[in-house]
């Protein structure tokens, strides 16, 4: 497939960065994953705005403006034949002359983008739901920055997989935050809830879309400051949302059924609404 590296389009296997790249050495780097449906980016502007915020929070120079990103990604998607893709975009602080914790502030950022297939979901994930486990959150506190420092996330996801689960839901001081690569929603006493945004939650683009859809559909919803693990265990529905998963119903939590153990009616409604949007 075709990749983009520092202004050039080239074969993915030929895209190489220096071992001195601060993204490689220190995860001094941010990223986005943007879903494409039939060659069109879904929520592209929101992803690019979040990317700009991540760059600002780390003080990394913006390699290009919104229009520049749109042009690069359009050319990349076209070169990869369009269709249903996940576009990965990463910007690192750049390549200093020597390894040094201290930041050199005039580096030229490294820009990498490539596409992966976005295969259709396993139908069982939608008919039966997925299993999730809860886990103590060991990540740092700056989770609003979409940085590539994902070690705690990948270890938690791997531990979940080892327990036969599809996602780990991270809990800190008894409060439910988010999944390792998703946001969390629940239906509790008939109300749709997702934890209010804070430092330790990524403002998910899909999370925002689902809240908008709930508002438009008149679904009673709230963003509580604290969603306790106890409250989550009493939910009639639990979902995880992300650009790749869209909305997955969680029907088993830590081995116990969620509600009646089947995807629930509020999920069905929101899933249909989101499907209609991505089909547009
Ligand atoms: N939280 C984390 C930690 C994530 O990695 C992701 C996936 N990017 C999400 C939430 C969901 O965000 P989005 O809907 O923008 O994909």
UniProtKB/TrEMBL annotation:
Its cofactor is pyridoxal 5'-phosphate. Keywords: Pyridoxal phosphate. PROSITE patterns: AA_TRANSFER_CLASS_4. Belongs to the class-IV pyridoxal-phosphate-dependent aminotransferase family. It comes from the Bacteria. It holds the Pfam family Aminotran_4. The keyword Signal does not apply. This is D-amino-acid transaminase. Transmembrane segments: none annotated. The keyword Membrane does not apply. Gene3D superfamilies: 3.30.470.10, D-amino Acid Aminotransferase, subunit A, domain 2 (3.20.10.10). InterPro entries: Aminotrans_IV (IPR001544), Aminotrans_IV_CS (IPR018300), Aminotransferase-like (IPR036038), BCAT-like_C (IPR043132), BCAT-like_N (IPR043131), Class-IV_PLP-Dep_Aminotrnsfr (IPR050571).
